[in-house]
Amino acid sequence: MPSLPPEAGIIRDETGAQTLLGYVVDISAGDGTARCHLDIGPQHTNRHGGLHGGILACMLDNAMGFAASLTGDAAGDTRFMTISMTTQYLAPARAGRVTAQGEISGVDGRLSLQKGL
Q: What positions belong to coiled-coil segments (predicted)?
């Protein structure tokens, strides 16, 4: 089967974690936000049938990191790393597509502050 043509702003299989978990990174909006989309499958659930919180945290970390990297260049190639992340879960996700969104909420010297939704 031939591979699909690349889509502008859609990043697939860039990292081992992204490939393993199966989410897609979307930086196509052009507004400085980054989104990670995942279609929940049985391999993503915890023993209660909901999306495992660690997978969602990984997606949030990647979305916020991409949002930070977009401050350096439009391709998102500027390097950043997470130094602290606090996550609060509101409700379990059980089926369908989930989206983690990262956006810049401020800059303080060499630190970029992000929020994830």
A: none
Domain ranges of the chain: 10-116
Spatial contact of 14 and 58, defined as CB atoms under 8 Å apart: no
How many whole angstroms separate alpha carbon 92 and alpha carbon 95?
A: 10
pLDDT digits (tens, 9 = 90+) for 36-64: 999 999 999 999 999 999 999 999 999 99
d(CA 117, CA 108): 21
Q: Give the pTM.
A: 0.87
CATH number of the domain at 10-116, please? 3.10.129.10
At 112, list the tokens: 């970029």
- HSE-CB for 61 with a 13 A CA cutoff: 16
d(CA 71, CA 116): 16
Q: Distance between CA 107 and CA 1 in Å, rounded?
A: 45
**Which of the residues in the chain have pLDDT under 50?**
1-2
